[in-house]
Amino acid sequence: QVQLVESGGGLVQPGGSLRLSCAASGSIFSINGMSWYRQAPGKERELAAAFTSGGNKKYAESVKGRFTISGDNAKNTVYLQMNSLKPEDTAVYYCSYWARYWGQGTQVTVSS
């Protein structure tokens, strides 16, 4: 069993930055397989950024160059640094482990 707890969401103006954190506990061996998804109102949940099985990083086209996923294996924690935020980034952001375990989500709202 894996538990995931996100933090760091909030309200930010367009062009601003936020950093999300996800702390994992339980049966997790590394941050490989941890990812950030997001779900905007009325839309399906989509992948924003992830660590692949090989430890590489992948990003949705819509966030490339603006978002950065990083992690700390010693702390079983991953981060999502979000820069140059746009109103269309407004969503609930979920941390996931292999798309099987999910956190409770944290709201990110980009608005002036």
Task: Explain what you see.
By secondary structure, the protein is mainly beta. The protein has no helices and eleven strands. Strands 2, 4, 5, 6, 9, 10 and 11 form a seven-stranded mixed beta sheet that branches. A four-stranded antiparallel beta sheet has the order 1-3-8-7, with no helix packed on it. Strand 9 (91-97) and strand 10 (101-102) form a beta hairpin. The chain is globular and about 40 Å long.
The H/E string reads EEEEEEEEEEE
The number of helical segments is 0
> The biggest beta sheet, please?
7 strands, mixed
| Structural class by helix and strand composition | mainly beta
Q: Averaging pLDDT over every residue, what do you get? A: 96
Quantity of strands, as a count: 11
* Helicity, as a percent range: under 10%
- Give me the oligomer status: single chain
Envelope shape: globular
Task: Give the uncertain stretches in residue-range form.
Answer: none
Q: What is the beta-strand fraction?
A: over 45%
Q: Distance N terminus to C terminus? A: 40 Å
> Nearest-angstrom radius of gyration?
13 Å
